[in-house]
Amino acid sequence: MASDLILFYAFGAIAVAATLLVIAQSNPIYSVLLLIASFMALAGLYVLLDAPFVAVTQIIVYAGAIMVLFLFVVMLLNAPREDALEASGSTEESTGARALGLVLAMAMAIELVWALNRTRILGFAFPEGRGGTSWSVAELGRILFGNYAFAFEATSILILIAMVGAITLAGRHLTEKRIPNPDPRIPSPESRIPSPESRIPSRSPWQA
Amino acid sequence: MAGLIHYLVLSGVLFAIGMMGVFLRRNVITMLLSIEVMLNAVNLTFIAFGRFLGSPDGQIIVFFVITVAAAEAAVGLAIVIALFRHTESLNPDAFRELKG
Questions:
Q1: How many domains in chain A?
Q2: In 3-state terms, what secondary structure has residue A120?
Q3: Domain assignment of residue A139, given as a range
Q4: What is the ipTM of this complex?
Q5: What is the DSSP secondary structure assignment for residue A121, as one 8-state letter?
């Protein structure tokens, strides 16, 4: 089916372009919104792969819940300008780390391409038959609560721990006894609040 | 007809982009978003292989990955909020004092 390939390339192009823009954006709000677009394209790919339930879950849970959580935090912190500081210059140490990171990411991409080239699945089409019909939600649920019952229950404990951990980490009681900042390079919160000239900093505060 | 290799290459590209984001960006929230990108690249691999092998296990594991991603996002964002309260910054370089 040629339409299949066209849809794959369309969704894949949207996903790659949106994800690249996520990395390139300096404003985290745009990053989050673009990532939602990327997830929508991935959901389209899941539909192409006969996994409609995963596609719906992807949209509802990922794009709906997790990304809204991110958006909520971005707007709560209201700090989209932090990246302007980043662009103006960072310490030598972080530049070195950045170069190392770039090299590592390139090595990763090259390694992936090399590994894929070596495998014999090149061009293998998806099988027809059972693979061609999508698994129904009932079947998936039966497997999830059958073979994977233990993992499912373990997941509930994971969620509980994550909940307790999030409340403990972000709870108000941590800041009540705020320790004074020992590092003079990092400005205290009071000094940064509204003064207008500090809105356009020429140097990053941790650079000096 | 798009074959398995198409999806694997796309997944690899997405994973590399996510990895670049983690390494190159100096914004904690964008780094967390990049981790989500990497998790989604892996999800795509799982679904593609599940379809290739005619097995539902790939889809089941994706549900677990989504759950873990939700837990990771909740804890990660809580840490971001706690750090932001102390340093008023999202740049990981500002959290040097964690080095001791």
A1: 3
A2: coil
A3: 135-178
A4: 0.90
A5: T
Based on the domain organization, do A5 and A85 belong to the same domain?
yes
Q: pLDDT tens-digit profile of A99-116?
A: 887 888 788 888 887 887
> DSSP of A122-147, one letter per residue?
TTPPPPSGGGGSPPPHHHHHHHHHTT
A1 assigned to some structural domain: yes
Any B CB within 8 A of A24 CB: no
Question: What b/e readout covers B65-76, taking b as 16+ CB neighbours within 10 angstroms?
Answer: ebbebbbbbbbb
Mark yes or no for CB contact A5/B9 under 8 Å.
no
Compare all CA atoms of chain A with the CA of B81 and give the residue at the minimum distance. Answer: A170
Amino acid at B89: S
Report pLDDT digits (tens) over A143-173: 999 999 999 999 999 999 999 999 988 877 6
Question: A142 and A152 share a domain?
Answer: yes
Between positions 32 and 51 of B, the ones with CB within 8 A of A are 32-34, 36-37, 40, 43-44, 47-48, 50-51
pTM equals 0.79
The answer on A106 and A59 residing in a single domain is no
